[in-house]
Structure prediction request, 405 residues.
Amino acid sequence: MHQETTIGARLRALRRWRGMTLDQLAGQAGLSKSFLSMAERGQRSLDRRSHVAALADALRVSETDLVGGPHLGPDHGQSDPHAVIPPIRLALQTNDLSHPAVERARPVPELVAEMARVEPHHQACDYVRVGHKLPGLLDELHLHAADPADEAAHRTALETLVDACVAATFTAKDLGYPDLAHLAAVRAEQAATLLDDPVRRAQSDFLRVHTMPRAGSWDRTLRATERSADRLEPHAGSELGAQVLGMLTLSAALAAAVTHDAARANDWTAEAARLARLVPDAPDQNWMSFSASNVGVWNVAVNVECGERGGAVLDLARGVDETRLAGRKGRRAAFLADVGRGLARDRKTKDQAVRWLRRAENTAPQWIRNNTPVRESVAVLLSQASSDAGGRELRGMAARMGLPH
Prediction:
């Protein structure tokens, strides 16, 4: 049933290309032969970061080679966001902090106000609206960074450029362009270095660790995240500093989970919960939504990465107050999608999984229709579905994701 749509189908093609048996691949990736056999036949999903990274490393390919690049389908909600990538790429590749690509720019205060209008669209994963304004902002901020009117304007331009690079990084990452995401993270790091501000530098560190290559390097991601958290801790007395530190601790928890260090992941999650008590539980106001509610969202993500499924995931989900996430559609969609993926792993809860995944799609359609783990869960569920209502719902989601259905 459409096995060519799953990551497992690409795994089989790459394994055969490498001339490896299932036994050899299982041994090198640290996974069972039976699991890989079922994955290759589209009966088990390869949606855990640790599994994808281990397999890509064993096959000596990139994760993009294994999971596939952007999948452009006929649904405009799925394909239209990709049109924003070329102008963002143009802005980042033709500018640097010494040599801007444009000769005119609006005053810095206008650019700050423009970025404030872009940010809600970034948080909602509305890439089309982000892409309408972000390339021009990047151009103009580079001009002010290279040729500032005064020191105050220079600092404000650099700070706003870091914010713009956050939006550029996650737009590119979410849509499947890791090279561009990394370039945006590097540009943020360059701006933060000029600012000589430990909190801004930590923000750029957060971007860097989220754009590192994954195959064979999650241990490096974990070490880099922990170093960044340690470096920021003495400077995290402000509310923003605590929020940035909190996001680094959550990132460390997830990286620890991927490296199969559950105790370390639990320690970092507990530290994030402690930091969350120092700031308002206001995801729609805090940096990257860091808050007690967001810690609950990441706790679900960490546990799903550790392999939780079915009813255990539902128990975790009950600890998250969705109403707190109303103003952060991206965070809410991430939560709904992670719950749905965990439910999809258990045949007893796969019908509930469809409902949770569908809610995630309704919340942030441009992201979810381009989300690789969700796509994998839908493809595997579809291979198991009959002509019942769940099957019809799945086929609708598959169509919008560009999957054969």
